[in-house]
Amino acid sequence: MGIDWNGIVVGQLQFYWSSIFRPRLGGLTDDEYFWEPVEGCWSLRRGDDGAFHLDGGEGPEPSPPPFTTIAWRLVHIGVGFATRASAFFGDSNVPADASMFDPRRVPGSLPGSAAEGLAFLDRVYAWWTDGIAALSDDEMATPLGPRGAYFANDPMGALVVHINRETMHHGAEICLLRDLYRASGAASRDSRFAPR
Question: Treating both helix axes as pointing N-terminal to C-terminal, what angle do 156-183 and 114-133 enclose, rounded to 10 degrees?
């Protein structure tokens, strides 16, 4: 009897998403989305072009890396789903030979509110998980090839496991930030937490 490795690996992400992470995002407000608990946070900001951009996209990450907001972390997860889904599961807007790190794979419009951020996250999560759930065991074992850039020789399964780790890592940080927001003075200005 064979082991359904695809079902196990994809099921890990789906369980985390539906049972732990996504339910914790209910009621996210714009104040909370953009909350900067410390000075010098990286966030999602409107640029001179009127579009929203993630801080830190221009150059190497400083050491230690800056603290990041819920908006930054949520969009970072979403961009990870979107760029990989674009590279491996079809996107007629980008040349097929462009690597998963090609900036043309990053969505042109990033979400500038909590509601838009959650809708974006749900959309790109579905795109990614629909794609990986349809892969056969042989496809999970197939090297990424040129679209994988410097991970070209790694199997698709390694990329899937990496995206699982990234989602759980940043998802846990988002949940912790929500707890800190609720427990901090910032939450007292949010009408959801006002005394009744």
Answer: 150
